[in-house]
């Protein structure tokens, strides 16, 4: 199990607006939910961009799970290895998708609750400003506020 | 494992329009889909009115399954026993629902494809006539037709 | 089909914080999604508080739909009648739930985009202020903005 | 926001039986369901062939939504723009699918309830005749019948 | 936000086989998945027996989320308060379920990988022995094994 | 309807570890669950590797079903024909995925309950041994044991 810590996609500065992404998928019917669950954070730690489960109805009345992993095409071999090792599946399927992404960078906003990083994303004439989830979550815990209260305070200064 | 074969609810003549039904539910996170699946026909064979799975998102990123079983309140003890024996759950929850049901009886319709039972259901001024699924399915297989073709033929004679 | 137009729950002034609500449910496996869909707005027009579908896995590999309708207990008979008339089900199940609700009233906020109603809800020391969805949606369409832009403008004045 | 009204795919005459279709997808975890919902009719108005949501289980216990949009490859840029503008996502993924479709044209059927358009679709030796949903829905409302009653009347004349 | 740390239900010794459990539910359509997610561990920390999300299809094309919380009836007021505070809902619904549970206690098994707690559950003539998930997970991380390898080693000694 | 019986993928000996697989998909909104369900075993009998349903939320509040079929690319035409014939869809979409699979062969294990085939799968340094589901299921029925009891007995001899 290699341990390449990389920044999650949502916290990266992005300057291009096109690239490719690889989806690796498998249908799981012979692993328990509690044994499949730790595969999600494990793949994210190893650099997967996104991991998500989808409940599916398989043959013979089986309430199966589709595992989907979005990765950098360069990580293909390492990710396949981890999925085959830590899940019960005997095979995975692979599909390359093109991606179109907004250019993004970070700014720091001074709010009544302290500094919060703001992700600023642009595509043609579209601009989106999004408070960093982790910053808001930390303030919520530290100041004993709800996440909703923190976001509202941030929006009032945006 | 008792083997009380009873007619499935959908094939019973019903003359009252109210009764009670018991729902028995459990959240499953430590049994594989392929081991949970045979519980569905097993419970139906033992007289459950309906069994259904629902994909749920449980704690710690677990893609769990909610098992729901609708039974005659008189079968409560036998059904609890079977669920505790054949699933991994350590407990079940129980809830009584009232039911309102349409009175129903069966008629036989002569169609171009042969006789088909029609379930005739009534509630106040509402009448519904539904071809028996199993009869249509048998004709489809025997005559090498699609189910859709059989239903359309039946509706043309209804 | 009676046509009792009543205000949706989310737009009512509420002064008590407890009442009862009736859930009416049915598992549907013999009606098409496109024929089941219009039942949702129909029940809401007739005064249902909430209507929601949930995908379930039924016997014999059927990808069924659970229909759930939350209604005022006083509307029980009319709602059962509509469900039995407009869906394929031959029976429904009924369950009373207690409810605990926040007291709420409306205020009007003057924003840079015009007036917007704000729902103010209170429970013990909790206060929530929520812009009325329909007001924001109307402004978004009229001023050719995204909903997100409207909500952000409202939050800045809240 | 451009407003190219085009006929929905299900109401087009189709004479070829192969083409390509583009799927545009995004995983949404930072937009509310009520703010995401209007994107569905908006994309359909702009000419998307199909739009559908799928509940997915994302990282950190998030009950996210996968947005899927099927479009004409020639509409790629306009559709990407609308999705990036009206949803919270910072990127979309793109995949081309081949399609195999039944040739289809419309006929008008005279029924006891009035004229109803019938979509006639052919592929090799397969023929399917489907009553137009919108026509049936209009009759149901005008004559105060259930959709099921209208379809049954149509099938009896098909 | 009170912080009553209590043992999760799955790690308790249980000597009775019947009790009552309260389900608190709400349909969420105006909170983002990333803001709803932290409510799950928060409620579990405060003593909820189980918390689970279920994707539902709400009115106006909204892909909503049903929040379900199973709690000790004695915790009703505290749990309602937390849900109303940390989610966007303006009301919750409450339902008491009976429960039937297996009696259970813990034993320690010496395995080739070290000691593992085994939950031993009994109901009439049924006995189930389940390795403690957390113990197996810790061994997997410490010895760099997959969970599946740890469970198989434990089963070989059970 | 051709009847090419082929061994299900999960019971094949596999000696290569790469190939291509074709996914055929369709969104269904005008077929009932009970009429769609028999398509699953029908496609598997004709040689599909996997068939699965996924509940999706389609336009106009329709709780639709996504049908997904994974097939050998050489079976493309026959599978498209069967899907168009036995479902209500007027078109399907097609996508080729690469696959990476574990090499596998079968061994027979002598257990206290009799012989059980074990699937042995290998990929680089990963080895997985999985009891054949059908063998375990037959023993469970014959000896009146739960599937869990059979698997535990097998694991103790693995
Ligand atoms: Ni590893
Ligand atoms: Ni995010
Ligand atoms: Ni039994
Ligand atoms: Ni039925
Ligand atoms: Ni009506
Ligand atoms: Ni609302
Ligand atoms: Ni626009
Ligand atoms: Ni259609
Ligand atoms: Ni709190
Ligand atoms: Ni557990
Ligand atoms: Ni055929
Ligand atoms: Ni398998």
Structure commentary:
6 copies of one chain form a homohexamer. Chain A has 158 residues and is α+β, with helices and mostly antiparallel strands. Chain A has 2 domains: 17-100, Transcriptional regulatory protein pf0864 domain like (Alpha-Beta Plaits), CATH 3.30.70; 103-157, no CATH class. Helices cover 27% and strands 42% of the residues of chain A. Chain A has helices at residues 33-36, 39-45, 76-86, 133-142, 147-157, and strands spanning 18-28, 50-58, 62-71, 91-101, 103-111, 114-123, 126-131. In chain A, the strands form 2 sheets. Chain A has a 4-stranded antiparallel sheet, with helices on one face. In chain A, strands 5-6-7 form a 3-stranded antiparallel sheet. In chain A, a hairpin with a 2-residue loop joins strand 5 and strand 6 (114-123). In chain A, helix 4 crosses helix 5. The longest helix of chain A is centred in the middle third of the chain and has 11 residues, at 76-86. The mean pLDDT of chain A is 92. Chains in contact: A-B, A-C, A-D, A-E, A-F, B-C, B-D, B-E, B-F, C-D, C-E, C-F, D-E, D-F, E-F. Chain A binds chain E through residues 1, 31, 34-35, 38, 85-86, 88, 133, 137, 144, 146-148, 151, and chain E through 1, 31, 34-35, 38, 85-86, 88, 133, 137, 144, 146-148, 151. The complex binds nickel (II) ion (12 copies). The site of one nickel (II) ion has 3 residues of chain B, from helix 3. Chains A, B, C, D, E, F: InterPro entries: Ni_insertion. Chains A, B, C, D, E, F: Keywords: Nickel.
């Amino acid at each position: 199990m290699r341990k390449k810590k990389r920044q999650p996609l949502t916290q990266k500065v992005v300057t291009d607006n096109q690239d490719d992404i690889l989806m690796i998928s498998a249908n799981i019917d012979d692993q328990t939910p509690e044994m499949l669950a730790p595969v999600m954070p494990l793949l994210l730690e190893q650099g997967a961009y996104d991991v998500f489960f989808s409940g599916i109805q398989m043959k013979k009345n089986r309430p199966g799970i589709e595992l989907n992993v979005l990765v950098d095409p360069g990580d293909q071999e390492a990710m396949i290895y981890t999925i085959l090792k830590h899940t019960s599946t005997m095979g995975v399927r692979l599909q390359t998708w093109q991606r179109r992404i907004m250019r993004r960078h970070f700014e720091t906003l001074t709010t009544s609750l302290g500094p919060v990083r703001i992700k600023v994303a642009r595509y043609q004439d579209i601009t989106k400003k999004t408070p960093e989830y982790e910053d808001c979550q930390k303030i919520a815990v530290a100041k004993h506020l709800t996440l909703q209260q923190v976001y509202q305070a941030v929006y009032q200064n945006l």
